[in-house]
Amino acid sequence: MTSAHRSTPESEAAIRVKALESLLTEKGLIDPKALDALVDTYEHKVGPRNGAKVVARAWADPAYKQRLLSDATAAIKELGFSGLQGEDMVVLENTPDVHNVVVCTLCSCYPWPTLGLPPVWYKSAPYRARVVSDPRGVLKEFGTELPDTVEVRTWDTTAELRYLVLPERPPGTEGLNEDQLAALVTRDSMIGVTRLPTP
Amino acid sequence: MNGIHDLGGMHGLGPVLREDNEPVFHADWERRAFGLFASTFVFAGYSVDEFRHAIEKIPPAHYLDSTYYEHWMFAFEETLIKRGFVTRDELDARMAQLRAGEH
Amino acid sequence: MLLTADIVPVVVATGASARVAAEVAPQFKVGDSVRLRNHNPVTHTRLPGYLRGKMGVIEQDWGVFAFPDTHAHGLGEKPQHCYSVRFSAREVWGPTAAAPDTLRVDVFDDYMEAA
User: Fold this and answer.
1) ipTM above 0.95, yes or no
2) N or C: which end of chain A has fewer CB within 10 A?
3) Nearest beta carbon to residue A85 from set C15, C97, C105
4) Per CATH, is B28-99 categorized as 1.10.472.20?
5) Domain spans of chain B?
6) Which residues in chain C show pLDDT less than 50?
7) Which chain B residues have a beta carbon less than 8 Å from that of C8?
8) Is A42 in a helix, a strand, or coil?
């Protein structure tokens, strides 16, 4: 007798995906090896370390920073990052007077080439609903508190521009090289829900 | 569409829940669902806009109660069935086979 | 076209920009005051409900892109300008919002009227 098969939401989801993938494969419409390659790319090769390199270069090289702020797509491509869900990039500079935070209230748009795939919280209903109407409250949940004098700019990704926050360079980092600077940059600081602490 | 997806400003959804050291994919089926996007986009001729709208049409309670990649599965099925690449009956039959351990 | 593993890197690196290489006149320019239309289609739109009827200022013109409202339904790209529009948080949410805060949203020509 086979072991009892309990239909859990997880196993139902797996069955649903396997049904579609197997049918499309049998019809010659998809290649499972292409799926493998896509998964490998976004699970292991593309992620926030890309964005951290962009940030570190901008901190270390003022001319690069200017290029990044005026044509982010081209400047990011200089470092080898481009493509799917990052075809039209905009970089938002945090300053002592301006703090930027990014959301997609309508779905989950996110700059894949620089940050990889979005975390579940970014895609979740609470974040999408609240960060536009109460950004300071949401930022506080992430441990970020900003004075009343700072302008919080909440960017809603409603079209095909994709946004990357350039966090403020932490103090005391003057002697660090680009690799060391990149190691300080977190994914959450490039979404804008956190600032980077002094190391 | 003034649908459930249009969440900006809604109240009552609770705190932003986070997972420490969250993996990129939480299950193997999520990996395959992810891979299906570019793979189906390339042959089926739907636009990202159409894909998004398919997700917007998920019944509201289910939209809030299901996960990101489950939303993608709705959208794949809707767009591919509409375009005649697969039928609801084929999908249901295959799922029944898989549940019975036959495939 | 069948996506095979060998062309995945090209697809990933190239993507599919929604920009349209068409000469389309913008309806607005940087600095213009605009009001978002009372736009309530049952079909696809990228105008969030919370901005309907709100007043903003054009901050940047991003150029010409495919219009999601038509594109989603196979009704063509209807290329038009897409802008970054600045809204004060108090304009959108009322007096409880923090005074200096703003929202920056990408808005298409068809979603706006001069204010």
Assistant:
1) yes
2) N
3) C15
4) yes
5) 28-99
6) none
7) 38
8) helix
